[in-house]
Specification:
The chain is an alpha/beta fold and 250 residues long. 36% of the residues lie in helices and 19% in strands. It is built from 8 helices and 7 strands. The chain has helices at residues 6-28, 48-55, 69-82, 121-131, 161-164, 167-178, 195-204, 220-228, and strands at residues 38-42, 61-66, 90-94, 106-112, 132-142, 208-214, 241-246. The longest helix has 23 residues, at 6-28.
Length: 250
Amino acid sequence: MDVNSEEFVFLMRYFNHGRLENPRFFRRLGNPDIRNCNILEVGCGTGSLAIYMVKELGAGHVLAIDIEKDNIAFAQANLAHNYPELADRIEFQVLNITDQSLNGRFDCVVAKDMFEHVLEFRAFFNALFAVLKPGGRLLSGFGPLYESPRGGHAVTRFPFDHLIFSERYLIDRLNKRHNRNCKTIREYGLNMLKLTDYLSVFNDSSFRQDYIRMNQSDSFLGKAVSILLKIPFFRWMTFNVYLVFTKPEQ
């Protein structure tokens, strides 16, 4: 991708937004030590987290993958143009987590803000386990979950409207806005899973659950809502989850 192209300039906005979020992401995970680790980042987007992990946190090597070709093309061009000193420690590839060549290779798998977009989540989560070495860690934070106020992502215009209106109405509205012809919300890249769905997959896996935190927020309103969501009746409105899981030693 040409670094002077309109597409590169457009995607640089997403990259810069990610740069602002990266320290918060690791802080909400309890600042796990990833120095010298061989890391697989899944759903890397425009690549800001991969660069942050190597440049600021001392990761040894990051293979950052995504299924969106434009994201990877941008990330490769940005790495070569703006961070050439990191080029031997970061790779960006169009690759699926289920690729057998990844199995058993990594000290850590990192997944930021992407679990809610994985349609076949149970199979995906099993693949995360497979790519780790024994003793390897999964570091992830994701949200907003579908039943939370803004859980509809682009589907949502105001809090909870994706839960109030019919799916047909929401899809018609989105199709008109984006000039598409989708039939379901899942076609817009949301798996619509509830907190209980995620917890079921986590509990059925062979991961050891070292750390899991919900409803992490830096704003006053978010912290107030977090207190409310500690009441079991309101737990269904959980808006984010942060976790550190470990693949047991064999």
